[in-house]
Write a structure and sequence with these properties.
Chain lengths: 328, 249
Amino acid sequence: MTTAIHAADLTRRFGDLVAVDRISFDIEQGEIFGLLGPNGAGKTTTLSMLSTMLEPTSGTATVMGIDVTKDQDGVRKAIGIVFQDQSLDEELTAQENMDFHGRLYRIPKETREQRTEELLKLVELFDRRNDIVKTFSGGMRRRLEIARGLLHHPTVLFLDEPTLGLDPQTRNHLWKYIETLAKEKNITIILTTHYMEEADRLCNRIAIIDHGKIIALDTPDRLKDSIGGDVVTIRSPDTSKITTALAVPWINRVETHDGEVILTLKNAEQYLSTIVTLMNEEKIPITSISVHKPTLEDVFLSFTGKTIREEDVSRKDAMRMHFRMMRH
Amino acid sequence: MDIVYTIWLRSMKRYVRSKSRIVGSIAMPLFLLVFLGFGLNSVVSATSLGQQYVMFLVPGMVAMSVLFTSVFSGIQIIWDKQFGFLKETLVAPVTRIEIMFGMTVGGATTAVIQGIILMVLAVFLGLRIENPAGFLIALGFMILVGISFTAFGIAIASRMEDMTGFQLIMNFVVFPLFGLSGALFPISSLPAWLEPVTLVDPLTYGVEGIRYGLTGASQINPLISVVVIAGFAVAMTVIGAYLFRKVSV
């Protein structure tokens, strides 16, 4: 295994705001690596630095051994990108968008045409190749962008929120493509997402990123194991006494959050009746109680004390305000 | 060169497809030519012009369609910024200079085609081009005007975030440049204090050059015209390239 991407103390500041704060990681070749975090956590900024679109304030990064600040063209030739926002020319056809890209990357005519056909077939757009992109749906555009990003045979593919705003069916479809790509073409894929299921399903390893810092980095399974068992969520009008009532050794963690009490324990199903009995003894009313296997959402919550959705709201507004100020 | 060609090719494809734009940007100079040309033909004394007013107006209107089309082509980069396509271009392993040149050549080409369309329409209104050399001279000046003002548009677009400033640029920069250029009237008919202003306007030399080519007569020596407008084209391209280099998306 060789290293595809190496980042060391990578930092980016926008004025006073530290968008990415001294992050370091290594990505192996052939791996699907996920950057998971709320909007504004610094995922796109990280991707922009790795893809030479943005200069790091400090720190270094290499892609396939090439330094992102010293040899920008070298890095650009090695990578393919699907941006978060659409970047197709809507006035051109699918074929023409591919052709434009191929020419920009100086791919000889014959290779260009052959690969275009092959890739458009892969993303099931070959029949629509002569249609203007304006007539395409969101999912079709996304697939076309992925095909385009692969045209110059990159060794590393960046996908920035690849399924943002797509319906569940299309999302599922895209996930299958991405999995096939990684397997068949042996491409290193680095994707950002704030969808937990997406990261869980696709990624070999995940870096959870929040406020510009990596707060956890491991395989999805190990991240979920770190929770320490199953998750029991209790809703109750009176959560204040629950912590003391449930101070027993077989419960690893008790957290009160937003009118809910979240317990983590091993083999939760066997202990449910005991939990209910303990609460009845203290005369604590129970509105509902539920058990589930840990998800990345729980991992995020346990590391940050917040759910990713709560983060989204506050951070998004802050970033929006900030960028508006930067522009003027 | 292949990158410049690629970007030029895209402009051409987009141009051919935007039928409404082709017709739309021809309409204004054509109407002006017909209304002003025939309306004022008998009012404007022919002696000061040495020709019919409507024929005097033709080069000015050709310059107008080249001017407006090229500025608009340049400013269109803002759409590319907003629709994200510029990112695709900027992240490719090509230099910013190549991209900017491609855009300039593409914009200038569309502008010159628009000018030629108007010239052809003017033939139906009575334009006679005596020798082919004259046409080529006019074409050369149209190309220089097209390059200058596409680069100008790119320079403006590189500093603008959205199209809201477009009207401002059109009304306070492009239209005065056009109005002062002698496209509508002979420079000599202006009051003495305004004449220097006209001579500072680079478009004046473009209009005079096209006029020399099409009618064989101009108030400014065509050699001076070619030097000034070519110099302006180079200057705008350098400024445009410099500002475009700093564009971030």
